[in-house]
Amino acid sequence: MVRSLVEALAGKLVRLEPLAREHEDALWEASRDVRTWRWLSFVQPRTRDEWRAWMDDALSQRDQIPFATLVGGVVRGSTRFLNVRPHDRSVEIGWTWLHPDAWGTGANIEAKYLQLEHAFESMGCVRVEFKTDALNERSRAALAALPAAFEGVHRKHMIVRGGERRDSAWYSVLDDEWPQVRESLRRRLREHGVLEAGHRDERERERDDDRR
Asked: I want to staple 50 with a disulfide (CB 3.0 to 4.6 A). Which of 13, 34, 45, 211 is the partner?
């Protein structure tokens, strides 16, 4: 099962913990703002039974690795690796949502940094892909800012939110693009005050040692 490929991923602000039943109550509270669900493919769960069904679905996917996203030690959302394809050395990052009080804090930037770093440097991926609703301007701007390469729109790609027909915009980052993307993300984390100027973490020092 691919879930065994990942343990918790920890940054300065964000910690991504493999999704477990112990996160259910805190995620329920974090998921109550309707703005969180505007562009997700499911209709917002309205009852605890519906939320338990969402958890059941997330935990049952055999080609996905779901996480609870903790911001400052508090559960504020979720994200996943999905479409994990070890043979192709490829993975998708998606199903990302955060409570609006974490928007603009640098939390999503650091979560993407942690996931991309793990995909390229631990899982050995050569491609990380993303898809989003073509009408979701906020998500598309965030992906372009990584920067991820825009690959086009799959028209009438999915039926979402109980019957809406969705066009999906696709983006990707490749292994030889990762060093540039990594530096871009680190610069933005410094701008948000998540990283201090000149900060070098243990993983960076290990990379430098490997080059010597």
From this structure: 45
The pLDDT tens digits for 163-194 are 999 999 999 999 999 999 999 999 999 999 99
Residue 209, domain member (yes or no): no
Boundaries of domain holding 182: 2-197
Say which residues have a Cβ less than 8 Å from residue 34's Cβ, sequence separation at least 6: 44
Q: What is the 3-state secondary structure (H, E, C) of 91-113?
A: EEEEEEEECHHHCCCCHHHHHHH
State how many domains the chain has.
1
| Residue of higher predicted confidence among 185 and 209 | 185
Instruction: Show the 3-state SS of 127-193.
Output: EEEEEEECCCHHHHHHHHCCCCEEEEEEEEEEEECCCEEEEEEEEEEECCCHHHHHHHHHHHHHHCC
CATH code, 76: 3.40.630.30
**Phi, psi at 5, each rounded to 5°:** -75, -15
Is 67 within a domain? yes
Q: Is the bond into 18 cis (omega within 30 degrees of 0)?
A: no
Is there a domain that residue 210 lies in? no
Single-letter residue type at 180 = Q
Q: What would you measure as the largest C-alpha separation in the chain, in angstroms?
A: 56
